[in-house]
Design goal:
Layout (H helix, E strand, L loop, with lengths): L12 H17 L4 H19 L3 H28 L22 H11 L6 E5 L2 E7 H8 L2 H9 L9 H8 L1 H4 L3 E6 L12 H4 L6 E5 L10 E4 L6 H18 L6 H38 L4 E3 L17 E3 L6 H47 L10
Parallel strand pairs: 1-4
Antiparallel strand pairs: 1-2, 2-5, 3-4, 3-5, 6-7
Length: about 375
């Protein structure tokens, strides 16, 4: 594609032909003629100029200047990349990945299917209001360089060959190039708003990030990527088919055989009877508790676990039970303080007794030792000369 001319300079015939060809292609995509497309573009530019507070000519000149400056900056970046290519560190790469939308590469699809089945320690995040799976690049690179990948590659030839860290990074680039996984970063959901987060918004799930897609799809160990590829949706399709079959069966109920319709009628009557029995039991147990609360306090419950957060069978165990009395916290605190004081006093008394007995033992010990020393006979040995 030819570069845009600088502001104030007329385009060359080659540039005019390229622009007309591009204009015809854009008009064909939208189902318009080139003249209709030009009128539509002019209306859009006039509306944008009104919003910006400029005239049509001023806004067009501004767009031309921006396009020319962008082209110059791209040329400078290309020259810098050609003169001094960025060095690649061993074990990781941080190159910019150009992305061109289109059909996903079969190799990228095979890689995504294999990685989705691996334990990348992914975490849930929120992207554009939807829950997605997020993972770190280094875990994906480790999985690609693992023996399990080589084993899977022997079964699936679509998986690219990986020999070192550089080829692993090149293989991982297939995911963002095919829009199967994109780099994201943590963002503030209230960014760009003139109001602060509400108290309800502050109470978010711990570890649940709100992320945004980054324009530069770099590849580095500590970066995070989010999966846009959800894998084969055979379960969802199976559930949808089952729901469709069930709806069609209900709609075609008048065409059912008579035996089936009679059976459904008896089944529905039995379910209604069970529901009515349940409500009658709930009312009866409430009346029974009200009577026994005054007659035999603290009150008797029939099926006390009926409305508790337990299993189905545990709801009907035990058959009956007394109402549990709730003790007041104040009494508990007072009783606890009294017991702690009594325990402390008994401990101090025991310590005093033990110290007194120890002192008596220490005072009597030297006297007994002196008496024993005087009373015990001593034998002296005489050495021979």
């Amino acid at each position: 594609m030819s570069s845009p001319p600088p502001p104030g300079q007329q385009p060359s015939p080659q540039q005019m032909a390229a622009m007309q060809q591009q204009l015809a292609l854009e008009a064909q995509k939208r189902g318009m003629t080139p003249q209709q497309f030009q009128q539509w573009q002019r209306q859009q530019i006039e509306n944008d100029a009104k919003k910006a507070g400029m005239t049509f000519e001023q806004y067009v000149n501004k767009l031309k200047q921006q396009a020319y400056e962008q082209h110059l900056s791209q040329q400078q970046q290309q020259q810098q990349q050609q003169q001094s290519p960025p060095p690649q560190a061993q074990g990781q790469t941080s190159q910019q990945v150009p992305i061109t939308p289109g059909a996903p590469d079969p190799k990228a699809l095979a890689l995504a299917k294999w990685l989705r089945g691996q334990d990348l320690k992914s975490r849930t995040c929120i992207l554009n209001g939807q829950r997605k799976d997020m993972f770190r690049v280094k875990r994906a690179l480790r999985a690609i360089q693992s023996p399990a990948y080589n084993k899977a590659r022997s079964k699936n030839p679509l998986l690219p060959a990986v020999t070192n860290a550089a080829t692993a990074s090149e293989t991982f680039k297939l995911l963002p190039l095919s829009l199967l996984a994109l780099r994201v970063s943590k963002s503030d959901p209230h960014e760009g708003h003139n109001h602060g987060p509400s108290p309800k918004a502050q109470k978010r799930v711990k570890g649940l990030w709100t992320v945004k897609i980054e324009q530069q799809q770099d590849i580095s160990d500590d970066l995070h990527y989010v999966w846009l590829y959800d894998g084969p949706q055979w379960k969802t399709k199976l559930y949808a088919a089952g729901a469709l079959v069930l709806i069609m069966a209900v709609v075609m109920f008048p065409l059912w055989p008579m035996t089936l319709r009679v059976g459904v009628w008896y089944l529905s009557m039995g379910m209604l009877g069970l529901i009515g029995l349940f409500f009658a039991m709930a009312i009866f147990r409430a009346i029974l508790f009200g009577v026994t609360y005054f007659a035999v306090p603290p009150g008797l419950w029939l099926y006390p676990n009926l409305f508790e957060d337990v299993g189905f069978f545990d709801s009907f165990r035990p058959l009956w039970g007394w109402q549990e009395e709730k003790k007041k916290k104040g009494k508990k605190n007072k009783e606890g303080a009294a017991t702690t004081d009594s325990k402390k006093s008994s401990k101090t008394a025991e310590k005093a007794k033990t110290t007194g007995s120890a002192a008596k033992a220490t005072t009597t010990a030297p006297a007994t030792s002196l008496k024993d020393r005087d009373l015990k006979p001593r034998i002296e040995e005489v050495e021979d000369d």
